[in-house]
């Protein structure tokens, strides 16, 4: 079909033949007025409607351009008024979205319906508003950085520093992106029933965070152990949880506890243990300036706290290299 014309009446119908002659394979003997054949009968009666059947695959369209063309006859089945005015020929470029069929729930994971790409004005305005807010935050941070440069005696307009305020603003929003994340979205239903009740350990997870006292980095590694209650958590989800809490202004003690409580909330295990070792640049670059010092923190939840045997097993396996 040409992009500049409407389909004529002489062309074959786009609907299957069984929908046009009452020979639906789904209910060939059912009455069209009641029972199981009622839906097919209603769809047959509305077959000339521009709306597709409810079970048809939805293919959203992106309107890329509109061109004015000569007057053409309207498509059959569409109610129009004979005003003599020219019709607009619309050129569409389609980007199909193949919606996945609903799958069976797995391990309590919710089945979310596939949502077509939204094109309505309200969603576009929301996206544009969010982008405007982001740009405003960048500009506000950049102005603050420019003031800092002036206060330390630098010239913000020299070549090497001209784009530094904007670069630092974008970097700071990345360093603190954990404020915009939450446990539910990160776990995303990755909890599986495996009947496993023995200790699971994930160690040597790299962590980078900002000390909230001086806003300088502290870096190290996090080790996580938990005893499941028949349910296990995807390993990458534990890394995502560590990343979420570390991408905030933190102190190491709180970061360790937040990771342990988040795993306990998401998985409901019998026990959780988190150990963190890190080096703080606020003790290396300034202050006491002790390069080789490290800080170790731990948090035990559930049977990891109440049972000395479980705690000792975790620490013994953690120290094995």
What can you see in these coordinates?
- The chain has 321 residues and is an alpha+beta fold.
- The protein has three domains: 17-94, no CATH class; 121-178, GTP cyclohydrolase I, N-terminal domain (GTP Cyclohydrolase I, Chain A, domain 1, Orthogonal Bundle); 190-319, GTP Cyclohydrolase I, domain 2.
- It has nine helices and nine strands.
- The chain has helices at 17-20, 38-45, 121-151, 164-175, 183-187, 235-246, 252-267, 303-306, 308-319, and strands spanning 61-68, 88-94, 191-193, 200-211, 217-227, 231-233, 249-250, 271-280, 295-302.
- The strands form three sheets. It has a five-stranded mixed sheet, with helices on both faces.
- A hairpin with a 5-residue loop joins strand 4 and strand 5.
- The chain is flat and about 60 Å long.
- The N and C termini lie far apart (68 Å).
- Residues 26-34, 46-56, 63-69 and 71-119 have low confidence and may be disordered.
- InterPro entries: GTP-CH-I_C/QueF, GTP-CH-I_N, GTP_CycHdrlase_I, GTP_CycHdrlase_I_CS, GTP_CycHdrlase_I_dom.
- Keywords: Allosteric enzyme, Folate biosynthesis, GTP-binding, Hydrolase, Nucleotide-binding.
- Termini, distance in Å? 68 Å
Helix content: 25-40%
Number of helices: 9
CATH level-3 fold name of the largest domain? GTP Cyclohydrolase I, domain 2
Q: Give the C-level CATH assignment of the largest domain.
A: Alpha Beta
Largest sheet: 5 strands, mixed
Side by side, the strands of the main sheet go 7-4-5-8-9
**Average pLDDT:** 76
Write down the domain tally.
3
Q: Name the helix and strand elements from N-terminus to C-terminus, one letter apiece.
A: HHEEHHHEEEEHEHEEHH
Shape: flat
Residue stretches low in confidence (pLDDT < 50, at least 5 long) are: 26-34, 46-56, 63-69, 71-119
CATH architecture of the largest domain: 2-Layer Sandwich
Corresponding CATH superfamily of the largest domain: GTP cyclohydrolase I, C-terminal domain/NADPH-dependent 7-cyano-7-deazaguanine reductase, N-terminal domain
Overall strand count: 9
What is the radius of gyration? 31 Å
């Amino acid at each position: 079909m040409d992009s500049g014309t409407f389909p004529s009446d002489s062309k074959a119908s786009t609907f299957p033949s069984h929908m046009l002659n009452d020979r639906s394979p789904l209910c060939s003997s059912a009455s069209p007025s009641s029972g199981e054949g009622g839906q097919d009968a209603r769809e047959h009666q509305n077959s000339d409607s521009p709306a597709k059947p409810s079970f048809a695959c939805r293919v959203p369209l992106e309107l890329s351009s509109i061109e004015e063309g000569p007057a053409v006859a309207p498509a059959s089945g569409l109610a129009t008024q004979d005003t003599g005015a020219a019709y607009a020929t619309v050129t569409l470029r389609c980007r199909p979205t193949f919606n996945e069929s609903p799958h069976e729930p797995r391990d309590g994971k919710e089945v979310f319906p596939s949502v077509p790409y939204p094109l309505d004005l309200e969603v576009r305005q929301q996206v544009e508003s969010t982008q405007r807010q982001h740009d405003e935050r960048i500009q506000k941070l950049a102005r603050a950085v420019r003031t800092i440069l002036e206060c330390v005696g630098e010239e913000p307009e020299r070549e090497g520093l001209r784009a530094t305020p904007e670069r630092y603003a974008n970097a700071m929003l990345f360093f603190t992106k954990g404020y915009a994340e939450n446990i539910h979205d990160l776990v995303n239903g990755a909890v599986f029933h495996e009947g496993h009740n023995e200790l699971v350990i994930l160690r040597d997870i790299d962590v980078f965070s900002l000390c909230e006292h001086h806003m300088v980095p502290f870096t190290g590694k996090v080790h996580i152990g938990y005893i499941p209650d028949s349910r296990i958590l995807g390993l990458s989800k534990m890394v995502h949880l560590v990343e979420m809490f570390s991408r905030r202004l933190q102190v190491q003690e709180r970061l360790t506890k937040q990771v342990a409580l988040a795993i306990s909330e998401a998985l409901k295990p019998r026990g959780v243990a988190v150990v963190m070792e890190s080096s703080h640049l606020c003790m290396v670059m300034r202050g006491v300036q002790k390069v080789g010092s490290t800080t170790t923190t731990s948090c035990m939840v559930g049977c990891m706290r109440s049972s000395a045997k479980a705690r000792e097993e975790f620490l013994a396996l953690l120290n094995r290299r």
